Amino acid sequence: MQQNQPVAYASRAMSSSEINYAQIEKELLAIVYGCERFNMYTYGAEIEVLSDHKSLEIIFKKPLFKVPPRLQRMRLRLQRYNLKERYVPGKFLYIADTLSRAIVQSSVPTDDDMHHDMEHFIHSVILDLSISDMKSMELQQLNCNDPAMQLLHREMKEYATQYGINIITTSPTYSQANGLAEKAVNIVKNLLRMECNLNEGLMEYCNTPISNFPYSPNQMLFSRRTRTRVPVHLLVLVPQNCHDVPELLEKPGDKHLSRAIVTGKHDTPRSYMITDESGREYRRNRRHIHLTQEPLVTILDNDLTDDSQPETMQSIVSSLSVTRESDANLEPDLPDTVATSVPRRSTRIAVNVCNQESTTFLRAKNCAELYTRGQTISGVYAIDPDGKGAFDVYYDQTTTGGGWTVIQKRQNGPVDFNRTWDDYTNGFGNFLIGEFWLGLNKISRLTQNETENKLRVDVVASNKAVYGEYASIGIGDRNSNYTLSLGNFSNNNVIHDGLKHHKASQRPLIWYLG
């Protein structure tokens, strides 16, 4: 909706599996469908979703790991949108679409023999239709009369150079840039052809509503219709203010948005050079470019590393998780999350820029720098701590004010944590399913900096959550076998220090893995 008026409707039938969804899952599925269906207008803009389902408001306020798996997947699909959900009782939703929920199930009959008939018809062609000499001459004549061809003609170029005329062409695939002048010439020709009195014809034209627009030029200029020879009621001539109508929704499939970065301004007006993620350069008009607050990141859909190593070892969770044996209040096999963060401080905000000599993006060094840049949405982002290459991490904005880098998350799900040493060095798991280990080499790069990092260990039960924090954490490089060093431990007298036997010895971390 724009200006409290609906501008588009969309609906679809649910699949056989979606019909069995719970009601809250169907409501969230409708929001996902609406955002993705109108992605051309929802991406990069602030969106407010009005829903009469009160439970959705609670689901959006919960941390992602506390949401059921099916709702987690839907919320991950909404991470790219600047979305805010607001509960509105059903009696205040005046445009609720009731008929779309009563869909008549019907199937379109298909003819299996049609495919064979089409192939038979295509292979029956023995001669193509050649163009006649008359049509060839007509095509040449049309090319000679085409204004665009005349501008590109060699003689026209020489004439423009001689008299200092600068010929400017429109951006590729955007001929509308010169369409206004062409349309004006066409309108004047029609008026001269049909009207003997040019002034009367111009008055009738200015009093006629524009196509696909409810107002005429005179209404927009004078806020009223002008009197012509066409008889109308006097109330029609009463002045009234008219407002611009919101831009109508375009047909799906007309345009496609892809990530790119502006590298510079072209010589022609309102044209810019952009570079996409594959490195290809394009020239586009300003209206082709949609500005978004979302940083340029890479979303991982696959595992971090290959899980093909046959050898196994004791899981690193035995060292980096808390001791739960003596606490009878917590249930066994509880999901835990290990996160590290750089304390927030006053830093200079870096902006993603690119010049024509280089296409290197200025990435954040850690998640704390993402926080200082104003990033408020949890998700997968690419960072580069030491300039040796970027890698993807999960950025947590919901825990204790945000700015945390999650290095381990385990919920006793499909990911096996009984891995080899190489697996724990390189990392494994998947961000999207919520179980992963970031990797010792990446954690070492994160902690080897001038700032002090914190280590937070969270243990979450069905209705209870406890945590502990280490004042500092440092992990050495590969040559030192990733030596572990920890600061003072603080807790809420519920959780125990699971690494108290290791932080004083300063031995390599490989000793703690069994």
TrEMBL record:
PROSITE patterns: FIBRINOGEN_C_2, INTEGRASE. Residues 358-514 form the Fibrinogen C-terminal domain. Keywords: Endonuclease, Hydrolase, Nuclease, Nucleotidyltransferase, RNA-directed DNA polymerase, Transferase. Residues 65-239 form the Integrase catalytic domain. GO terms for biological process: DNA integration. CDD domains: RNase_HI_RT_Ty3. It holds the Pfam family RT_RNaseH. SMART domains: FBG. One of its GO terms (molecular function) is hydrolase activity. This is Tenascin-R.
